[in-house]
Automatic annotation (TrEMBL):
Lineage, highest ranks first: Eukaryota, Fungi, Fungi incertae sedis, Mucoromycota, Mucoromycotina
Keyword Isomerase: no
Protein name in UniProt: Nucleoside diphosphate kinase
Gene Ontology molecular function terms on file: nucleoside diphosphate kinase activity
Active-site positions on this chain: H128 (pros-phosphohistidine intermediate)
Organism: Hesseltinella vesiculosa
Keywords: Kinase, Transferase
């Protein structure tokens, strides 16, 4: 069966994007959606979730040994605000999504990126995006693994956004 991250390098490529609790508290959800929609990407999954500690630890498994890991898991999963979890689809969306988000440390994020516009602290950097096709596959199945949570649809006017000739 087709990967949940679509087909790498085609217009069906998908990435996992999440507005983290600090971004939700700060009213940044619409800013994130606006940027991906305006660019021409297609929203194929969206939900508000308070992730369990277990899900959050799995999501950030590669950071388990870091000193900030416990604080990171707490802030993501304590329920003071939900995470707004999304899957976006389109050409090169994984790499472009990371570029739109900006560097992990907002003090190094370029102006114009989401973190570079709205954030000043690595511990409160508002948004997550998959960093590779393999991460996108893992993260989409973790957050949107149940049948029916992702929608296949054709965006109106997509022929004016994507063409191969
Ligand atoms: P990314 O979110 O840009 O992919 P990662 O290195 O994967 O960055 O780290 C995941 C998240 O862990 C970051 O977005 C940030 O919330 C948190 N984090 C990373 N480094 C630090 C740190 O030095 N202090 C506190 N939190 C950190
Ligand atoms: Mg990461």
């Amino acid at each position: 069966s087709k990967s949940l991250a679509g087909v790498k390098g085609t217009e069906t490529e998908r990435t996992f994007i999440a507005v983290k609790p600090d971004g939700v508290h700060r009213g940044l959800v619409h800013k994130v959606i606006e940027r991906f929609e305006n660019r021409g990407y297609k929203l194929v999954g969206l939900k508000a979730v308070v992730p369990s500690r277990q899900l959050t630890e799995e999501h950030y498994a590669d950071l388990k040994s870091k000193p900030f890991f416990k604080g990171l898991v707490d802030y993501m999963s304590n329920g003071e605000a939900p995470v707004i979890a999304m899957v976006w689809e389109g050409p090169d969306v994984i790499k472009q999504g990371r570029a739109m988000i900006g560097a992990t440390n907002p003090l190094q994020s370029a102006p114009g990126t989401i973190r570079g516009e709205y954030c000043v602290s690595v511990g409160r950097n508002a948004i997550h995006g998959s960093d590779s096709f393999e991460s996108a596959e893992k993260e989409i199945s973790l957050w949107f693994g149940k049948a029916g949570e992702l929608i296949d649809w054709k965006r109106s006017g997509s022929e004016w956004v994507i063409s191969n000739n």
